[in-house]
Specification:
single chain; 204 residues; alpha/beta; Metallo-beta-lactamase, Chain A; 7-stranded mixed beta sheet; 4-stranded mixed beta sheet
């Protein structure tokens, strides 16, 4: 698990040879309880970093495909799990591991200071982008990704239901201050995030 240039924010990943990218998970260390986003399994060293930084209290899943190690970690550590309401039908039996279902309007505890933005038109009916207000960090699960370090892109056309809706949704996030753009798939933008996001919109 690596520290980042954003105070309190860590990430860990697993390389995917078939895609030539990393799958990433994030840990936000907070005094009132840390948050895991789309968590992958934790090895011994990664768990040690988590514990050394106050541990976790919450898990937020951006979409069903990013459930990953959530059930096991939630059971082991007694975590509160939040997932998108729009994804409830896909969870099936895994829904029993979810403590709360969130939308853009409510569902995530207010004290976490996380804004939810709905992005329609992707591979799921509505994907959720998360904005961590105190950190000025924008976090995507699937919609935005990176296959070349330093360059953002979106899902391939075959996984997009409505490209116009995708572009409109991403444009709606343009004015958010961004110290970083964190990605579940591929390299996050840790430096010049504003420029990287503007470049993405220009190419769309």
């Amino acid at each position: 698990m690596k520290r980042t240039c954003i105070e309190g924010l860590h990430y860990w990943g697993r390389y995917q040879p078939d895609r030539a990218i990393d799958f990433n998970a994030f840990f936000w260390a907070r005094p009132d309880g840390g948050v895991l986003f789309d968590p992958l399994e934790l090895n011994v060293a990664e768990r040690a970093v988590l514990d050394a930084n106050g541990g976790a209290r919450y898990v937020i899943v951006t979409n069903f495909d990013h459930v990953r190690a959530t059930p096991e970690l939630a059971e082991e550590m007694g975590l509160e799990v939040y997932a998108p309401f729009e994804e409830l039908p896909r969870f099936g039996e895994l829904a029993t591991h979810v403590d709360g279902w969130y939308t853009a309007q409510d569902g995530i505890p207010d004290e976490l200071e996380i804004d939810v933005h709905e992005l329609p038109g992707g591979k799921t009916p509505v994907e959720m982008a998360l904005y961590l207000r105190p950190l000025e960090v924008l976090l995507f699960g699937d919609m935005v990704r990176s296959h070349e370090s330093g360059r953002l892109r979106i899902l391939p056309d075959e996984k997009i239901a409505d490209r116009r809706e995708v572009v409109r949704g991403l444009q709606s996030l343009a004015d958010l201050p961004k110290r970083a753009v964190c990605l579940g798939d591929g390299d996050s933008a840790w430096w010049k995030a504003e420029e990287a996001y503007a470049d993405l919109l220009a190419r769309l």
